[in-house]
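Why run this: before we spend reagent on co-expression, it is cheaper to look at a predicted model of the complex and decide which construct boundaries make sense. The entries below are exactly what would go into the expression plan.
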Amino acid sequence: MANNVDALYIFLLTVSALMTISIFTMIIFFAIRFRKRAGHQAEQIQGSHALEITWSVIPFCVFMVFFGWGALIYFKERKPPDNSAEVYTVAKQWMWKFEHMEGQREINELHVPVGRDVKMIMTSQDVIHSFYVPAFRIKQDVLPGRYTVAWFHPTKPGTYHLFCAEYCGTSHSGMVGSVVVMEPRDYEAWMGGGGNQPLAVTGERLFSELGCVTCHRSDTQGRGPNLVGLFNKPVLLEDGRTVTADENYIRESILQPAAKIVNGYKPIMPTFQGQISDEQLNALVAYVKSLGQQPTGQTGGRNMATATPKTQ
Amino acid sequence: MATAAVQSGERETYLNHQYGIKSWLLTVDHKRIALLYLMGITFFFFIGGFFALLIRLELLTPAGDLVQADTYNKLFTMHGQVMVFFFLIPAVPAVLGNFLIPIMIGAKDLAFPRINLLSWYLYMIGGVLMLYTIINGGVDTGWTFYTPLSTEFLNTHVITAGLAIFVAGFSSILTGLNFVVTTHRMRAPGMTWSRLPLFVWAHYATSIIQLLGTPVLAITLLLVVCERLFHLGIFNPALGGDPLLFQHLFWFYSHPAVYIMILPGMGIVSEIVCCFSRKRIFGYQAMALALLGIAVVGFLVWAHHMFVAGISLYAALIFSLLSYFVAVPSAIKVFNWTATMYNGSISYQTPMLYAFGFVGLFTIGGLTGLFLASLGIDVHVTDTYFVVAHFHYIMVGGMVMAYLGGMHFWWPKISGRMYPEGWGRLAALLVFVGFNLTFFPQFILGYMGMPRRYWDYSHSPEFQILNVLSTAGATILAVGYLLPMIYFLWSMRYGKPAPANPWNAAGLEWMVPSPPPTFNFDEEPVVTWEAYNYDEIKEEVPVAQ
Amino acid sequence: MPNSPVATANHEAHDNPALLHHFASEQQQKDAASLGMWVFLATEIMFFGGMFCAYLVYRYWYFGDFGAGSQSLNVVLGGTNTAVLICSSLTVALAVRAAQLGKQTTVVVCLILTMLFGVVFLGIKGVEYHDKFVEHHVPGASFHFPGHIPSHPDIPINQQHAQIFFSLYFIMTGLHALHMIVGLGLFAVITYYAMRKRYGPHYCTPVEIAGLYWHFVDIIWIYLFPLLYLIDRHK
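The model came back. Tokens follow.
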């Protein structure tokens, strides 16, 4: 997809260069050809409606091409493919913390296999940051208090710069790292080392320890809604609205349960704001998402090993 | 009433009308107030420029070895705040607008001379607050004050900086109010709207933006100050607030603000191009409508600064589309200026050199805006040096060149003296070359991925060569800016006395002596001619060399 | 808009001492002042507009908590204040009319009444602020707003959201009160000159434009009152 961005860029560059050269040439030409000299009078020209319309409409049409093409790219860029492998990211002053679904944690370095869609589910612990990988032509601000999402599809192994692109204080320029794209075999090897607990399993443990399981049973007897198969489904709220149970919904439900009450349930869920860290929150979200998904090996949830590989 | 001048036998002008510091500090003469502003904005220009120089020196090498990280963050913050709020926004309206608009429309002064003086005092009070902030350790929020960084996570003088800009904002609002009422109510008989110089139209459009936009910045900054003082949560997600609300409120003003900065410059360029092509403007109506169109549509595009901030996909689409709409009137203006030169009788005095520079560089700056309006590209280049290069092309390559062009064009009228033309042309050339060398490499840096506001780029030494070029350009630019300072001052004593109309230009301001008398006109003029009546103006006096 | 008929630019022709030097005629001066005040009011709308925008956003998101906050405000005092302000707008309109007709005593009386109403408003506001302070509804370390959302006895009030309501309440009404104080200052000056019989049919612009400003301050309150005090009252 980076190629698409470059293609649009080159198109814009070409049109702009042509425009610039035309205007510059005309101005220089006029400046010389119509310079002040004896016997030459300036010609008083009022204007020309035809010209005004022409040089309004034609640029406008060209602009609409710029807009449309850019919009198409943006559409794709904002919608991660289904079955992307997911990496939870917590940004803080001044480092990037990554957690793979398999449980590996990384600081400032992100290992991914080539040829698979990767979806970053990101939040900040403090101020606004921005996840920027120039080589992939993607950027997404990372906000405190909610999740934002970015995705990419690496096509070439290598190490690529990761920059924070939203000014965040003293070491903003130090909040850099890299995305390391590996051949699938190397990635398996890297992932295999270290007995990490998959993120969703951590979430399952927390779900039990924090008492969620007492109300959110996997039957209809619970005081809270059954969460199996919840993720990305529409949810009817008691005030009549319908919302989609995305990552932000799950997160908000844990931190501010009174904000959206599910139809037919009482607002008795306590809040966990201030009691769990962002990483624990990520684990819980990952666990809830995994409920009711097709079993994909022991890990559950969307991890690199099971994400649909895409050929170039 | 015997003025100082009359007593000594000289012709009375606004400069010799009365002497003494009180006569300046308590003046209500729009021309004197313009000069008071000139001192302030020149001072702040050099302060902001000094910060820029330090930034460029730091960026010569990848490592952060000149200043500390916190210091660097303060430098780019205060460079932005000082330049935007204390130079770019007031410069043309408060100096040239104040001086010229009453004369151009045939009035004796602005509608509210005392409010004009109040505007200046508000500007100075804001300036003092800004200086206090700088001297006491500065502020490092970025000129954009994004929350919750600025409200919760920094220990610098955010409040005084915010208050400084708040106060200066009211200066801007009152100036806009004065111009709107003046244009509506103070035109001389016969000076209909369709006979107004485009300089006046430009300031009218600018004033609309100042009036409707600046109050929103004022309330936003006030909310940030309250948030810091009382630990409120309006913009802080940890306390239930929304950081994006701040961004929307901030950019609702700060995008139209860039049109406040550029529209007066466009007005200047129209005056200069017509004079030095000896022709009326091509498409007067289109030009006036384009000014108004930019002002209006400019209020509808603010969230193009937020495409990756977390706004919805659909909001992004709408703002991208609208951003392309606002590009059309700007393009029209460039074409019209070029068409004005066609079959003209062009000479190359310093003002015209700056006008050439403006049209060319504004074209490049505007075209790169099209890149940024395109969603797919903006995701890659936003928050990088590409954006920095884009807005400096418009602000510096556009607005500052227009300002300098205007200062040279009207200097004889303001001071009664001619500046030295040779030095003027040299400075214009240095500014043009220095500017392009400074900022063109930054487009490339941005596309390569160098983010903004980076003190240290030692992780990416490949950025260095372009940064070195940029810094080299900055030093040339600095010389280009220093020269006019020096020779304008020199000319006040040693410059050739200027006639009323050294350029044989059209416009009421050229029909009064240089410098003008305090009340501008001996008799209220009655206007019977169209704007830019170059067909009627004979060049008895050769255009000033 | 055609320009007013030209008086020549010689200053000796200006025999009305209230006519400022740079204006060609009294009509031009009056028109300029009037337009100036309308334009200024437009900027004030934008100024308050930013806060209304923040209010609207949070009202939508934190519906219940805002309802609870609103119900804790004293609608009797707020309503009284609304009536007081509307009366003051009446008295100021009467003052303007009296000035136009040259009724010097009426002008002074009406202006003094207006200022009295204004002071009453501020006094009642002070009482309300004091109550809020005592009840710990002032945002800050001692903020405490127990209770539940209107019509939902089982949903507790979110303290953070309620604090945002009260932050906006204090800032919006506080800025409004500041504008009122400025208005009172203006009227004090104008009353002083009115006692010196400065205003009449030939010159009443200051009274008119001060009246305009006061009406604007009144209108802002008429928006603030329902938005802040009357949310969810039917529940």
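The radius of gyration of chain B is 23 Å. Residues 24-511 of chain B form a domain with the Cytochrome C Oxidase; Chain A fold (CATH 1.20.210.10). Bring this page to Monday's planning discussion.
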